[in-house]
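Sequence and structure are kept together here, with a separate record for every protein. An example record follows, reproduced without changes.
>
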Amino acid sequence: MEGRINRLEREWDYLAHRGPDPETVELWARLWIEAGLEESRAMALALEFLEYCQATGQDRSMFTLGKWERGKED
């Protein structure tokens, strides 16, 4: 329950902290970590992806992740 309260407090304080919350970054980083990528690099990629979603207004989804990955290769 305390974790959920902390998360809600961060959401309410969004104007002061415009980036993705740490739990969401860890959730998305887990994809790269499970694929064998070093944790610090996975966290950086997750943060970059989530900031991309936020900046473009796109949903955080596997479809968007694939689109983002293809765009990085161009």
Notes: The two ends are 44 Å apart (CA to CA). The mean pLDDT is 83.
